[in-house]
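Bit of a strange request maybe. I'm writing a small parser for structure token strings and I need a real example to test against, not something I typed by hand. Could someone generate the tokens for this chain?
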Amino acid sequence: MPFPPLGTLYAAALLRKNGFDVALFDTNLLDSPHSIIPILEKKKPNYLVIYDDGFNYLTKMCLTNMRDACFDMIQLGKNQQCTVIVCSSDASDHYEKYLAAGADFIIKGEGELTLLALINNLEKKQSTDTIEGIVYKKDTAIIVTPPRKVLQNLDELPLAAWDLVDMDKYKAIWKQSGTAFTLNIATTRGCPYKCNWCAKPIYGNRYNAHSPQYIVEEIAYLKENYGVSRFWMCDDIFGLKPNWVQEFNAELKKRKLEIKYFIQSRVDLLLKEDTIDVLAESGLEEIWVGAESASQKILDAMDKGTKVEEIYEATRLLKNKNIRVAFFLQFGYLTENKNDISKTIAMVNELQPDNIGISVSYPLPGTLFYEKVKDDLQLKANWTDSDDFEMMFQGTYSSAFYRKLQRFVHKEFRKSQGIANLKLLGKHPTQFTFAKAKSIIKLGYYIPSASIDRWQLKLHQDES
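Reply from user aminoacidic:
Good idea to test on real output. This should exercise your parser:
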């Protein structure tokens, strides 16, 4: 279920609005950076802009594979005499490495306005010294200009350049998944909360939003031109601005637009006023919440700002509105013990979320958590793949423990689903489906397998 590179599409749209010819090389559907060679040879661009999709949370992990691919593309661009510009969270953190790999300019922070200013100056052969938010080499010195302020009025940006995307290729992959074709929209940038493990390298500890009218206009455009009625609102937190969700719902009704969408949010935010009712009315079908842990001790250590009881209350209210609920869970935070882990597993079994995503605590540069553990970091500075589950610092337990824990929690999750469906079969046989029947049959595997894992992990032993 891939999504087009939304961040790149915004940058492309702004450049095109200002008179530049822009082409998109979409790496999402490709396996090798070398696929760009025939494109560069044919189009002979003056600039190769390697622009990271800042709306994709996986890129914040600065995956080693992605960095190496970027270095390859930098060299391929230089081979074709392109001026190479890189805009990414990893390049912002490690600009020396990217300059050493051959990049001409690094954009630090939010990229659209900086990219436009940079290319305008380069085209006019003017100095780049006064452009905010860039890094480059001048002779042997590395020049880091003052940071650019983040864009506050997001509606100043033109709609993303969706026409540059090969929608047919995306639709074909979505069709294989058996899920309705879905596109990604960002209604906001940034996050004002202070979870001490969460990186905000691009937009900072701020929160700026598009107007509901802008977003509904984009939805209308995408629905009319690409026949899409389902959307992933890829904000860190959807609908935080007071009355935004209510205005969004009213605008959809005014335009007579019926959609389905899914979001990320916080449990405390969902409990405010009539938020859940309005979300359901406007077409919300699934929500991912950062539950993280059912141990209040761990939530407080993370500076999460939420309460365990809020996870329980929000989940029950959402389910009453037939909204699917999914949990992000995080294991391995400092001071975690098996009692904390067992509480989280018990919460999953009790609340029966529709899906879960599991990670281990990952020290991202620029976070308070990183500062706490940086002296303890291993030589390996990044994950190679997004499912590494490598403990980068000395946690309570080993990487092997957390890898096994991740598998065990998924088994417990599937086991609890199967048991719930078995009970449903007895009470409401007419509501039964093939998928529910499969989950019951798989109990023959999950029950004994989860029991063995629990014993090997010694989770039957409480720790205070």
